Amino acid sequence: MFIDFLIGLFAANALPHYLIGRFDGRILGLFGYSARANIAYSFLCTAIALGLFQYKYGLESIADHGMLLGVLLVVFSFYGGWPIITRYLTSSGKT
């Protein structure tokens, strides 16, 4: 049960550090205060969550864990979709 808690903790913690890093915010992460440090910490949190999940359940059973799948879907959608989000945010203020 404690491993499940850690899986959820690291998976959910990845998103705020990624977003704060992308918006050049300053929040303390494992690697420091900078934007790059927060983005790196976000990737580390995701890797730890997936590693713990692999250790306990195996990645082939991820479809059986809907809550974790939902959190990871949101995290990976920001990882992969950030160029689109940036393009929208920068072009929405221009005429």
Question: Can I get a quick summary?
Answer:
With 95 residues, this protein is mainly α. It contains three helices and no strands.
Description:
This protein has 95 residues and is an all-alpha fold. It has one domain (1-92). 73% of the residues lie in helices and 0% in strands. The chain is built from 3 helices and no strands. The longest helix is centred in the last third of the chain and has 26 residues, at 66-91. The protein starts with a helix and ends with a helix. It comes from Thalassoglobus polymorphus. This is PQ loop repeat protein. The chain crosses the membrane at residues 38-55, 67-85.
Shape field: flat
Radius of gyration: 15 Å
Multimerization state: single chain
In DSSP terms (H or I, runs of 4 or more residues), the helix count works out at: 3
Please state roughly what percent of the residues sit in beta strands, choosing from under 5%, 5-15%, 15-25%, 25-35%, 35-45% or over 45%. Answer: under 5%
Number of domains: 1
Taking the sheet with the most strands, its summary is: none
Question: How many β strands by DSSP?
Answer: 0
Unreliable stretches (pLDDT < 50, length at least 5) are none
- The residue fraction in helices comes out at over 70%
Order of helices and strands: HHH
Structural class by sheet pairing and helices: mainly alpha
Measure the end-to-end span. 53 Å
**Mean pLDDT value:** 89
